[in-house]
Amino acid sequence: MYYSDFKAFSFPSKGRVRENLLCVLCLFCALCAPCEAQEYRETVITDAPFPMKPIKEFIFPEKMFPITKYGAKADGKTLCTKAFQRAMAACNKAGGGYVVVPAGKWLTGAIHFKSNCNLRLEAGAVVEFTDNPKDYLPAVHTTWEGVECYNYSPLIYAYDCENVAISGTGKLAPRMTYWKTWFSRPKSHVEATRRLYTWCSEYADMQVRQVADTLSRMRPHLIQFNRCKNVLLENFTIRESPFWTIHIYMCDGGIARGLDVYAHGHNNDGIDIDMTKNFLVENCQFDQGDDAVVIKAGRNQDAWRLNCPTENIVIRNCTIHKGHTLLGIGSELSGGIRNVYMTNCKMDGSVLRLYYVKTNHRRGGFVENVWLKGAKVNYCQEVIALTTDVVYQWKDFPDYETRITRIDGLHIEDVQVDSCDKVITLMGDQRLPVKNVTIKNVKVGKYKKKFCEVENVENIEL
Predict the structure, then answer these.
(1) Cβ of 184: how many Cβ atoms within 10 Å?
(2) In terms of pTM, does the model score above 0.70?
């Protein structure tokens, strides 16, 4: 806010909360350099069964930075990467605003965010990302399945930013032809994952962990917000992704609202909320080739080193058309997960498991106070499932250290399932049994194989 604007400034009316960070000297004189006010509104979480602070939503300045002004052309051939970079830099330098993508098809490589910038996808805008790995170099500090490394840049990437957003009704649509050739796990990829596993287990320096090469085949995320504050994702459409679709990693505060997400390739989770706190997902729809909404907290030694639990997460009023799970917890959960609440969500297709907690003896960490309430599904293999021996392709790698996951407080209630194979499958670890599982008002039309299979669980309330 400039001094000349001070006369027009008024404190918020009742019912709206704003935090205004003003240069104090502006209250008295016009001699100081211009400074911008940062304004927020608050989305209040009222129905979570645990204390949770309101989530701040940044109000972006009404300043527009159309990418066409910085050299972008909507011909489907001109690479617009530099135009996005220049527009983002200008927006940030001006104190924040909107990087505007008009209607048309815009071909680009990696888009890197700066603070106080909102990537605004106008109606009819299609951001088409190339599938050339060279367009996602130099390598950036990112992750691969819970392990930190230097890899190809996510197609949209923000690192250590504040007040960042993607909004509007446009579309993100990466080209997938080349990435699909990386879906398989050849010997070179397995060797690369083994190197990552060893680096993580031995606490290797980050600069050593370089995997951005075509032999490793470590596909980039579509969107990764990494170590950011106040993230907003609103109303846009996603069609396909090379890897995890939306990855919220080590962030504090954010909202995903009104998204239409479709990605049916390998490892195509919908949204992964990972070592993050104070995040809301609402009114979204997901159609995924893997898990739909996933709560994670890092892998093994990396997560123990970072010590950043995932906590205070609310998912509400979402529809999952297809996916492996409605609500997935893990398997990367070594930093700990607490206070998760999914409510009033539905599945209008089929799902493998409605509520699934998965871990193994290498993870450590904890899971506590996780709720699924008010869900509907036509068919699933299992309604609520817990497995403590999920190792996937890492099963042949050595055990550097054994740490059992503490699990205490899993709750599922007010759920309706037309049919399933199994209702309850809870397989705890005898070295540290699961505690306090509540299953209440779960209505199942019919089950085909087994009602209940439980091992190493203490205090189940039915």
Answers:
(1) 9
(2) yes
